[in-house]
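Lecture 7 notes: from sequence to structure.
We start with the chain below.
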Amino acid sequence: MEQRRYKRTVLKRFMKNKPAVAGCAFILLIGIIALLTPVIAPYSYDQQNLEEQYSSPSAEHWMGTDSKGRDLMTRIMYGGRISLAVGLAGAVVSLVIGVAYGSVAGFFGGKTDNIMMRLVDILYGLPFLFFVILVMTIVGRSLIVLFIALGAVQWLTMARIVRGQMIMLKEREFVEAARALGAGNTRIIIRHLLPNLMGPIIVYATLIVPALMLEEAFLSFLGLGVQPPASSWGSLAADGMVHITPVRTVWWLVVFPGVALASTLFSLNFLGDGLRDALET
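Predicted structure tokens for the same chain:
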């Protein structure tokens, strides 16, 4: 009964936050479009027509065409799938590492906690974007490597959050009761403590996704992001910048991918802020 009342309270708080609701609706819309892109896209992904290269937005091509005459709206729709996949997959990698690391450090405490958190402090001082660039250069430029590399540099804050919450919760009565019934450390962490941390974990996940999408866009400007023929919003914007010259101003190649990326980032941040406020007790 208490759990049901708490869920209703959280939902009521969230619905009162109009920017968060709008952000949630926009993210759902983008997600639906990404899933249905192969069905609803007006053209095939790589369909070229050199007679229509650099066509400005029109009734036939709502967002114009690129240097090879490909429909930009179609490429943005497909690029959204890659950008969202980078953010979500990277967030999963980050959460798995951060939650596991923070849980062990916070639950066992003492020397274990001290050593593990000093390592986190050291890693915080390293230039992680340089690490990602180094990994992409050495291992290879593939989507899988990109997912892992980006996710592996975003887990530190999650580890600290989980560790702090774990230290507070492990002294509660329900943990002592579980221990008295013979539950081991692993069972206590997984079955009793982590379910009580889902609020902070979910909130932070909504903040990791836009950070990872932004990092991927930055890597695309360096030529280390998603590689052709695949494209993301970041790589589309980077490609558009290359084709803007004093002779030719093809603004739509930069504006439309940039707007798609910026709108999604803002929406995710609004959603994260709304969830944080709603889950506060």
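Points to note: The mean pLDDT is 84. The radius of gyration is 22 Å.
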